[in-house]
Amino acid sequence: MSGARVTPRKEIKRQRRRHSHSCWDHLIIAPLWPKYGVNLGTLLRTCDAVGACMAVPKLPWMPEALDKGNTLRRPACVHWTGRDPIAWLSRHREQGSRIVGVELADEAIRLADLAAARERTVVVLGHEHDGIPDDAMELIDVAIEIPMVGTGASLNVAVAGSLVLYRLAGFL
């Protein structure tokens, strides 16, 4: 039995796209109630990896957090939602977007049962401690639960969002 084949770095680079995406409008992650700027940088990296975009409220500290968190050193695909996340979410729903919320809810489906996105999809992430507000939950088409066996109630926004993005992009 032979060991695992290690793919040379040059071959991996050759298989990837040559330029960053210009905003694949098909998949948008929306941490609409962010608490920690460091999580946004992690999500930007994941967006680049799966060809998604990020939508965030234009809070005073947000541009600096995004700039600091963008370790790719090139422009990231960021949409500004304004200061009213519910209105922004409502507009996307009216325009036909599928709205997916990452939240513990009675009728939530498990992450493993989530199919890859085949239509414009907005993934809503809630506040680190309070989750997605009730008025936003009314706009959600499907809630996603990420199963956990540990003692924590949830994963942080960056980890949860990254898992869901990879699943919706069809990579998991």
UniProtKB/TrEMBL annotation:
<dbReference type="InterPro" id="IPR001537">
    <property type="entry name" value="SpoU_MeTrfase"/>
</dbReference>
<keyword id="KW-0489">Methyltransferase</keyword>
<keyword id="KW-0808">Transferase</keyword>
<protein>
    <submittedName>
        <fullName>TrmH family RNA methyltransferase</fullName>
    </submittedName>
</protein>
<dbReference type="Pfam" id="PF00588">
    <property type="entry name" value="SpoU_methylase"/>
</dbReference>
<dbReference type="GO" id="GO:0003723">
    <property type="term" value="F:RNA binding"/>
</dbReference>
<feature type="domain" description="tRNA/rRNA methyltransferase SpoU type">
    <location>
        <begin position="35"/>
        <end position="166"/>
    </location>
</feature>
<dbReference type="GO" id="GO:0006396">
    <property type="term" value="P:RNA processing"/>
</dbReference>
<dbReference type="InterPro" id="IPR029028">
    <property type="entry name" value="Alpha/beta_knot_MTases"/>
</dbReference>
<dbReference type="GO" id="GO:0008173">
    <property type="term" value="F:RNA methyltransferase activity"/>
</dbReference>
<dbReference type="InterPro" id="IPR051259">
    <property type="entry name" value="rRNA_Methyltransferase"/>
</dbReference>
<dbReference type="GO" id="GO:0032259">
    <property type="term" value="P:methylation"/>
</dbReference>
<dbReference type="InterPro" id="IPR029026">
    <property type="entry name" value="tRNA_m1G_MTases_N"/>
</dbReference>
